[in-house]
Amino acid sequence: MAAYGPPSSRNRLPNWSGSDIGSNSSSRRNTSMFVEPDAHNGGPTGATSSGRSSRLLYRSARCTKMLGLTCIFVLVLALYYFMSDDPLPRSVAGNIVTKDLFDTIHVPSYKEDPGGKRRLRVVMPADGPAVNLCKVIMSAVALGYPMPTILNWRGEFNRPDWQFAGSHIAKLESLLAVIETLLEHDAEDADEHDLILLVDAYDIWFQLPPSVLIERYHQLNREADERNRREWEALAADFPVPPPQQSIIITTAKDCHPSWDSGSEPNYAHWPDSPLPDDFYGDDTDHVFFFSDPARKYRRVRPRCVNSGLIMGTMGSLRQALQRCKEKVDQTAMRGRQLWSDQALVGEVIGDQMLWREWMRSLAETWNGTAAETRLDALAPETRAIAHAAVRDGKQFEFGIGLDYNFTTIPPTCSAEEDGKFVVIGDKKTLERESAKAGVPDGVRVRGIPAELRDSEGPMPGKRWDEVPLYTDFFFGLSPVGVHHNAYINGLKPWRLENWWNMTWFYPHLRDLIVEKLKPVPIADGEGQAPLARLPPRGKDGKETVYFAPRIDAEEKAVRVFEPSREFKPISWDGVCQKGSQPWHDKVFGDGKGPLEL
What we know:
Elements: H1 7-10, H2 24-29, H3 49-67, H4 69-82, E1 92-93, E2 96-98, E3 116-125, H5 131-143, E4 149-151, H6 167-185, E5 195-199, E6 204-206, H7 210-235, E7 248-253, E8 305-314, H8 315-334, H9 342-364, E9 371-373, H10 381-393, E10 401-404, E11 420-424, H11 428-438, E12 469-473, E13 482-484, H12 492-499, H13 510-517, E14 533-535, E15 545-548, H14 552-555, E16 559-562, E17 568-571, H15 573-577, H16 584-588
């Protein structure tokens, strides 16, 4: 959810040169990233300070006679640059970039995951108990997800001048703290290749098991890697920078919000188009409707922007991306400004990544095997700023972040209010009626149950997956892993959170499912848990990848709170669910059987 700040910050123009990419003084000195070749040796002008001075004095005498004040002015600028303490790399000469440049910048290297035992962890930010928080957790437990860890519980957010006291930004800061704690202090049960899933805590319901989420995560990454590989190879087959490899997935939105007035600049103009067909929503695909409600304007736009309701990736890659987020937060705070939302902050990090890729593509287009033409003058100022920071400071901008363009994970329902409903996939007449009602241009796109479930058992004895209601997006033709209830027009969000709960397939059996899932499992063979998912080997020497819940789930199945002391403390069901006078179990189970007894 995005917020709007005070007019003073809203009217402030974005300032790349004054941001963490580079200071104002540096950008004034470095008016061009590339310098004229020396006429004597073909290298960058002024290889030594003494050589610079003698040549400049000689040229000064000639220029004074020929051009007077104009040449003196140019000379002063040149002296200011050459005497600065921020020289440019010697590997850059004129408009030519050589292979040596790539030794001075952060070029990502990718290692194939060898497979083996991996973990999936689930975290969600929540500052207090609520029935809606209880529903999120119960839906996850009923489906067999690992017991979640709560971030920022009873949080006292320490940025009073920031929007929501900085609670949205704390969502990412605490996720980084969890990852660092696990990798640094729990090496026996945590690995950089393990997956961690962050979801919003009050408006998300799971409906498909973790095996589907894990398989779709890897499938989305493979599809993105293939797109990047084709694009890179079409430009230059032997380019020194390898094509990006994706390891972080974030859900997408149809509207690109928030923009620079949030305190961050995602640079959405530089993000790629959606890979979906350009007639995905029919003839009016990507048409913006100017209705009074802003959410309805984008209902026919292919999603291509960021929504931070779900963030999922390997702990190693997310640690790097979140460290970059933290740098931006610290530097913004030092400048006396604020960042309004985690979504805007994540969007800015992705935007920097897209600008980095844009610069790399511009180099690859002219790569001849040994050098490339820079063409910086043809790049946007914001892209040039990224290039400056990469060369001058060696900053990392590529983090392997990608988007779930296909709405396969837990997509937002904002601007997609009429696109999906709970339906029984085997009911063809209902699919036809609801697809037509939604406006799907070519009839029914739903082709049976999700492919990941075709060889699996049904959700319960005697029931197949195509016999139970699943929230299904009629345009994408599939049932996502979960549903994100952020459709806010006409008060839909609170209404659906209360009135759609009994439409889920697990609701009539929820108490029994929870009791069954929370039974203690004796530890055996060092694991004591059934696998969440199995993936076949990749590569010649790869092993099967088997995902498990964290080992602590085998010891005690409980929701845990990540404390400021960096401890994981269990919390009771009453502790996370009860708020107000009405018993939480009456609303969540709705079966009149009283409190949950295990």
